[in-house]
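Consider the tokenized backbone below.
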């Protein structure tokens, strides 16, 4: 299509980007607020974990359902309902008087958050029909997510210095109010014609597949290979197979599995999962390195991460422009090579004074990821017919959630194993010093100066070795992903060029998706 977006669409994009910015900020400010709110609410260790995890569990579980629901009842309608619910749940969380109330509020935030991302991404596909403009719009939307990651520690740290812990939850309220006021004026409504009813059995199966799997991955990351999380993963996988079989048989499925017949669609989805899994896990280790090895406060660590986010924002904007001349396969693969070079640089990080290595390495990782994020997301949502754009968007976001959880579980476990094998803790030191760098730092504070210093030096070296191991393995896998992209997407031409017929099932309408 050649329809160009007008002023209304671009202003509407800003309205759509704002809640995405605030939702991503909300995820990161909680990490800063957790110590203070735990003390004020007398939250136990288990309650603290549920305060952190209840949001992510419900968000992951309801993404597929909400993406399809938006296709059927109207994407703008679902977005506005979700915005109202997100704002109300934010207020409940801010003024929670008990751990149970805060956990319940966070769970409601997760359900509401599941309505926002697929609805915004699907609306972007409706508002930006021109194949050259859509990747740019998706880049702006992704930029808002990255901006939230950068601003989270900075804004959260500033709020916690001047206000009570509940203030961090109120950040999203003004944005949601603005969305409720401007959304009906600036955003178009779209719903699938002849939409069928939601299959409640499929909804139940999707929740029964996703929730145990996500919980199992998180528990594996925390406690290693134990029976309960492995059983949960197995159960979730089994239910997942039953879910897919049901979708194949239904005339109007909750999730259209025929989309996976498009080789480029599947390759982009898999590669985005890998990109979330590997550099995502590395990012978590880097934030710990900045605070526990370099000794930076959360606020200063956040400020040092700003250049790396600036690199991400720049590449998210430039990639769609380059894609008009360079075939996406080459552009994405070239970007992944840049990301791999950043991961290789991280393998050289020293256990002290390594700030330059970490910041430069992460900047290169983010710089190289831009083409995959913008063009891959554009391909995934564009491969679906218009009436299923919400479902396709939910697949993309569910993949990202699983990728992050899987990365923390696998690469986090690997980093912990390397740490435990290398740390030299003297006899009599608490067991927690042998498990994590945070545990070693806490133990060292109660030891004689010489012994504590030696323990910290050993623990920091062991942690850095774990970071280097994860970065090295991730670099190899990212390069493998680049090869996969070159093979699977070789037929996709530059943005705006005439495309060869994608490998879609017979009779399925396809747009110029990249």
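A designed sequence for it:
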């Amino acid at each position: 299509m050649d329809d160009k977006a007008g002023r209304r669409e671009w202003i509407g994009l800003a309205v759509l980007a704002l809640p995405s910015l605030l939702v991503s900020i909300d995820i990161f400010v909680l990490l800063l607020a957790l110590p203070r709110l735990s003390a004020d609410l007398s939250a136990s260790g288990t309650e603290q974990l549920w305060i952190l995890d209840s949001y992510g569990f419900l968000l992951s579980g309801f993404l597929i359902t909400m993406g399809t629901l938006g296709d059927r009842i109207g994407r703008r309608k679902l977005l506005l309902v979700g915005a109202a619910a997100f704002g109300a749940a934010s207020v409940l969380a801010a003024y929670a008087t008990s751990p149970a109330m805060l956990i319940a509020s966070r769970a409601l935030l997760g359900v509401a958050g599941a309505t926002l991302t697929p609805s915004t991404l699907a609306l972007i596909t409706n508002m930006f029909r021109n194949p050259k403009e859509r990747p740019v719009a998706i880049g702006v939307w992704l930029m808002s997510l990255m901006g939230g990651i950068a601003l989270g520690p900075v804004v959260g740290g500033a709020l916690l210095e001047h206000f009570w812990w509940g203030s961090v939850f109120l950040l999203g309220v003004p944005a949601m109010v603005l969305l409720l006021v401007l959304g009906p004026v600036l955003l178009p409504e779209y719903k699938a014609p002849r939409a069928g009813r939601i299959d409640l059995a499929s909804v139940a199966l999707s929740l029964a597949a996703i929730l145990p799997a996500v919980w199992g991955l998180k528990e594996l990351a925390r406690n290693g290979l134990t029976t309960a999380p492995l059983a949960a993963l197995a159960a979730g996988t089994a239910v997942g197979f039953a879910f897919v079989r049901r979708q194949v048989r239904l005339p109007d499925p909750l999730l259209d599995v025929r989309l996976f017949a498009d080789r480029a669609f599947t390759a982009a989805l898999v590669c985005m999962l890998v990109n979330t899994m590997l550099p995502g896990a590395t990012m978590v280790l880097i934030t710990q390195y900045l605070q526990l090895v370099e000794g930076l406060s959360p606020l200063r660590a956040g400020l040092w991460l700003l250049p790396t986010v600036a690199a991400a924002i720049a590449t998210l904007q430039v990639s769609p422009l380059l894609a008009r001349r360079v075939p996406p396969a080459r552009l994405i693969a070239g970007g992944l090579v840049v990301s791999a070079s950043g991961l290789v640089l991280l393998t050289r990080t020293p256990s002290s004074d390594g700030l330059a290595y970490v910041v430069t390495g992460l900047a290169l990782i983010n710089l190289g990821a831009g083409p995959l994020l913008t063009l891959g997301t554009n391909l995934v949502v564009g491969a679906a017919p218009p009436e299923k754009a919400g479902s396709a968007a939910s697949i993309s976001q569910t993949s990202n959630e699983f990728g992050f959880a899987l990365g923390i579980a696998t690469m986090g476990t690997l980093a912990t194993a390397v740490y435990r094998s290398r740390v030299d803790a003297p006899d009599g030191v608490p067991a927690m010093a042998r498990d994590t760098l945070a545990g070693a730092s806490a133990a060292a504070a109660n030891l004689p100066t010489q012994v504590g210093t030696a323990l910290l030096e050993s623990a920091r070296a062991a942690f850095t070795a774990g970071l280097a191991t994860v970065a090295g393995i991730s670099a190899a896998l990212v390069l493998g992903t680049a090869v996969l992209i070159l093979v699977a997407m070789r037929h996709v031409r530059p943005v705006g060029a005439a495309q060869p017929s994608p490998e879609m099932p017979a009779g399925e309408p396809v747009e110029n998706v990249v």
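The first helix runs from residue 7 to 41.
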